[in-house]
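S2.1 Query sequence (Acyl-CoA carboxylase subunit epsilon)
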Amino acid sequence: MSDAAKTTPTTPPFVTVIKGNPTPAQLAALTAVVAAKAAAAGGEPSDGARNEWGRPTDQLRPNWASATSFYKQLW
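Output structure tokens follow.
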């Protein structure tokens, strides 16, 4: 075994075929699609808390803070 093979770390395969016998062209197309989707996804997601103030869905919730809110609700 050569010295270059000993120092090169092995990486897991990008795509693993579990069933079937795809052609090299089919594997290339699949790899291109997966790589394009990964690139379009952007960077790593932010770990910060989401700021959800002013969401439009909050306006659809009933107001439970008023004194008359329980008998005005149309169930």
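The mean pLDDT is 75. The helical segments are 3-7, 24-40, 69-72.
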